[in-house]
Amino acid sequence: MSELVTGEAVVLGLRPAKLPSRTLAVVIDLLVAFAVYVAVTTALTAAVSSLDEAANAAVSVAAFMLVLVGVPIAVETLTRGRSLGKLVCGLRVVRDDGGPIRFRHALVRGAVGAVEILMTFGVIAVIASLVSARGRRLGDVFAGTLVVRERVPRQRTHAVPQAPAWLHGRFTELDLSRVPDALWLAIRQYLTRMDQLDPDVGGPLAERLAADLAACTGAPVPANVPPAMYLAGVMGERQARDARRILPVTTAPQGYGPPWPSGGTVSGDGGTPPAGAAAGPGWAAPYGPTAPRQAEPPGAAFAPPSVVPPGAAAGADGAAGADGGAPRDGGAAGREGHGSGGSGPATGFVPPG
User: Are 128 and 136 in contact (CB under 8 A)?
Assistant: First the structure.
């Protein structure tokens, strides 16, 4: 793969075409071009048969330049670097920066190609392609172009196998910041292809990768964990950390209760965080400060709120005091007002008879 850097500092991974595929594409183009050239030459010869030999020679040269040089230039310009042979072989001509070619690129390639391909039967083009690191012929060098493979075989990607359930949460304390990306890539490739490897090859490879990973994390490989499971467990821990970093679950929407604490659950009131958990920056009570709730008796049943007249509510408060429970503030105040001869403000309270 050839790495090209564009003006926007973007690295392009281009796959230069190999010499056999380029040769096949050129052969297909030449066969089609010579067939058209023979047909055009035959028609022009029949049309100008009455002229002298000089006129016939001029017509032949014009047909040669038009069909074998002009037509390929026009085709590559109009198709942005794809002739018939390149279309069959899955190739395309692009600029050095990966962009599509224009008329001037196709003109230089066609003019130089007439010399290095047609007049020398492709010998110069083959030698130049073998010498070039990216397989470019002289026409590509002068025009600043490159023939690349447009159809790349699709590779099947397999998901990374998950670690067993008994390994979940076992590697949460590991320091994964010193593990290089190259080692992560090697571990991922091994895990996705370990079913395809021979056991005599996959076993030592897993041990070597596990030893390298343990050296980077500073913690030895657990003795009761096979190397492949150890690699899968650490890879799963890394993916979990990345997921939490991208989609954090510790931030609750504004006004919908506290964040999820680690190792705990959100309290049922939706407005106060659980005991021992500090409220995060995104937490806020739904409707201002929330007073702590009083503990309910174990056997108390839930009753939905209802609107009752003030007198009935006061009577219920007094009845609660008579039942042996602690009288509420409203009932006590009512009794005090009644005992004092009604000197207090009128509240509509009627003591029970």
Answer: yes
